[in-house]
Write a structure and sequence with these properties.
Number of helices: 13
Shape: globular
Distance between the termini: 29 Å
Number of strands: 17
Strand content: 15-25%
Helix content: 25-40%
Largest sheet: 6 strands, mixed
CATH topology of the largest domain: Dna Topoisomerase Vi A Subunit, Chain: A, domain 2
CATH class of the largest domain: Alpha Beta
Strand order of the largest sheet: 10-7-13-12-14-15
CATH architecture of the largest domain: 3-Layer(aba) Sandwich
Length: 364
Amino acid sequence: MITMSDTVKKIEKLGTEITKQIDEGKEPNYSIPVRSLGNVYYDKVSKTIKLGDKESKRHFLNIGHARKFMQTILVASEVKNLIKHGATTSIRDLYYALKHTIEGTKENVFEDQSESDPLIEDLEASLGLLREELHLTASTKGIIAGKMTVKDGKDTIDLARMGSGGWGVPSNVEPEKIEIKDLDAEYVLFIEKDAVWKRFNEDQFWKKHKCIIITGKGQPARAERRLVQRLNKEYKLPVYALMDADPWGMYIYSVIKQGSISLSYSEEKLATPDTKYLGLMISDVDKYKIPSNVTIKLNLQDIKRIKEMKEYPWFKKDKGWQKEFDLMKQRNYKLELEALSRKGIRFITEEYLPHKIETRDFLG
């Protein structure tokens, strides 16, 4: 686990290297990883998407680089101050904290947050850190429930006593911020949709089946993914994903499992390669006699996404996934999880999921 002291040392090393260049009369410059599709690959060992080793240099005396050079140093300096003072701020607050006009000019150091956000990602990639380790936070939307107690600062929170709303996952779930205690669960259920999560919570599925239920309300934020990875790595809990039987839901599963191209520089700290896909599946229509009138016809974007996902390295050699993609395209329809309500409002919690888990009917 990286400490605050380790983080500060990494930032100071960047500053020291630039200062040394100046002292030696050299042009100040620093290297950053190239964050483009051409420098991203699937690592078969870690089973995650990773950033390659291609780098580019940013030079202070290059007119095309000078502004970003100055901005990056400002961001790094402010981050260091945050860490030393034990403070955390949002990426929006950071932008406003740094936004000012250079004395004696009409030049603003930042015109818009779209300038500062990519620089935070540059620092994450260059230093090998998550933004949460830089004491920066982004918005989060996830909720979680189950037999688990966490210590959040000075507060001890029982996730089994959070009522119908569950506990809102904070943006920073690193071990020094969120300590997991008194965990009594056999697996984690990652649910795509908020409405479906509420059904599982209302039916106290987590209590009856001894699990943790979590949702990112669609595409999950970094915090939900990081917390699930911690539960998997630190407590060896299996992770099951419950998504819509459509290309979007299956893509979300892919991101939870292997990661995304946009966050390739930090996926080893976010992705959970052990995640299994429980459903919903197109093949479930026949298995569970789901009425055909709840299916939805595929659109052109759906068909394009299916074709793309069939070629993902982690799907390409998996016969089960290839069969599922082919079946979806052949039948030309998709399904939402709510379609199972046609079989009864509690069919999904009382029959569908328990049977899936019992028979280990999932895709890897």
